[in-house]
Specification:
The protein is an alpha+beta fold. The protein folds into 2 domains: about 50 residues; about 100 residues, Band 7 domain (Tetrahydropterin Synthase, Chain A, 2-Layer Sandwich), CATH 3.30.479. The chain contains 6 helices and 4 strands.
Length: about 170
């Protein structure tokens, strides 16, 4: 049997009842989402949010910042000129460096032990080849080795860094 249309409308589709129920469902879903979002924010803000640091903690943090800005004493060594371990001694290295000391008291000890320190550094530099010291990685390794060897002599502190001022391989 054929379905009849009355005034151009299909009698099986409800007129406004379906549209109202969809709108009401959307409004309820949006309201529930807003309610859950607000509840989640409230729980985070009142229970889970980190507490601001106290005045004591702020003072401690500020003291650490100021300590990091503190400059350590530096001791300048005379320049080193050594033959490198390349074949037939045809290449040489000229290095000027400064040692960063962990404390002011260490300056006196470094001054007294300067012959020992220079000997250790000269021996180390002359054992290197031009290939080992030309690369950036080689320079970093050389610094670490110098620090390690020099610190074996020191008793009142230690060398923290090496600053290379001049580095010439000829």
């Amino acid at each position: 049997m054929a379905k009849k249309e009355v005034d151009g409308e299909n009698p099986e589709v409800p007129e406004e009842g379906g549209k109202k129920s969809k709108k009401l469902l959307i409004i309820i879903v949006v309201f529930v989402l807003l309610l859950l979002g607000g509840g989640g924010f409230g729980v985070y803000y009142f229970f889970l949010a980190p507490k601001p640091p106290s005045a004591e903690e702020l003072a401690k943090i500020e003291a650490e910042k100021n300590k990091k800005l503190e400059f350590l004493p530096v001791f300048a060594l005379k320049p080193f000129v050594v033959n490198l371990a390349d074949g037939k001694g045809r290449r040489y290295l000229k290095v000027s460096m400064k040692l960063e000391l962990s404390s002011d008291e260490l300056s006196e000890e470094v001054e007294k032990r300067q012959p020992q320190i220079r000997d250790v550094i000269l021996t180390l530099l002359s054992s290197k080849t031009s290939g080992e010291v030309n690369s950036m990685e080689g320079k970093f390794l050389l610094r670490e080795e110098i620090i390690k060897r020099v610190n074996t002599f020191l008793t009142t502190g230690k060398i923290t860094k090496i600053y290379l001022e001049e580095f010439v391989v000829q």
